[in-house]
Amino acid sequence: MSLNSPIFLKRSEENNSKFVETKQSQTTSIASEDPLQNLCLASQEVLQKAQQSGRSKCLRCGGSRMFYCYTCYVPVENVPIEQIPLVKLPLKIDIIKHPNETDGKSTAIHAKLLAPEFVNIYTYPCIPEYEEKDHEVALIFPGPQSISIKDISFHLQKRIQNNVRGKNDDPDKPSFKRKRTEEQQFCDLNDSKCKGTPLKKIIFIDSTWNQTNKIFTDERLQGLLQVELKTRKTCFWRHQKGKPDTFLSTIEAIYYFLVDYHTDILKEKYRGQYDNLLFFYSFMYQLIKNAKCSGDKETAKLTH
């Protein structure tokens, strides 16, 4: 269900920025213990109050939820929507969710809540058609054919060139005309005129790692450019048994991709523009961390 209601769309970047609080720098040893502490986040006071008051009603479906409704993709009654930050992204994001993925445990919903105009969630086997736009779409998934983020522009530009060459490959045309057409429409991949990227959309698979193969091998995703993230450790509290701590949650993967995209592709200094994608995630992380330290099992249960 879409979150693009009139009241939601009234939230602007100005409303978002007034909440932003730049964190003080911490020592390296402390940072390693709490990797989410230096984020530039909106005030989480609204979540603190909601956590204290307990579950609340979803104004759309009437379900009892904590913080937000994972069915309708909206904050619940005791979390005013105007107090939730709105994040502007440089790309569109499609999330393909496995049907067996438990809605209440999925962090993909965080992206839809915080960047509703840029994020769409589809439940497999529902997948959009990407074949005609494979030169501007990338699938974020590790594998032997995966490339690094910094190489995205190069590989997508090659696809554009190959597509144009195919269209212009008319045997009835004189070779010099074909050559001239190519020169007009192609640019040197190393030419400064080709700076930027044709990338417009990225795709993430939302499921446990044991379930990803069913979606990843779907023919509708075959042939897309695959991109692998840099190795980072997850903070996710629902660790998948037998999997390394470098297997990220969906919202972590989205966040880290955008940070690297900002620096490696856009060539701009990162100043926390996407940190609020971790608005719910960082709060839940700290909540559960504190609950484990105090032995408060009931508090941990509140996060779905």
Automatic annotation (TrEMBL):
Q: Which Pfam families match?
A: DTW
- Ranges where the DTW domain occurs: 65-293
Is Nucleus one of the keywords UniProt gives this record? yes
Q: What is its main location?
A: nucleus
Which cellular compartments is it found in? Nucleus
Q: Which family does it belong to?
A: Belongs to the TDD superfamily. DTWD1 family.
Organism domain of life = Eukaryota
Indicate the enzyme's highest-level EC class. transferase
Question: Catalytic activity annotated for this protein?
Answer: a uridine in tRNA + S-adenosyl-L-methionine = a 3-[(3S)-3-amino-3-carboxypropyl]uridine in tRNA + S-methyl-5'-thioadenosine + H(+)
What protein is this chain from? tRNA-uridine aminocarboxypropyltransferase 1
Keywords for this protein: Nucleus, S-adenosyl-L-methionine, Transferase, tRNA processing
Q: Where exactly are the transmembrane stretches of this chain?
A: none
Gene Ontology BP annotations: tRNA modification
Q: Does the keyword Nucleus apply?
A: yes
Q: Which GO terms describe its cellular component?
A: nucleus
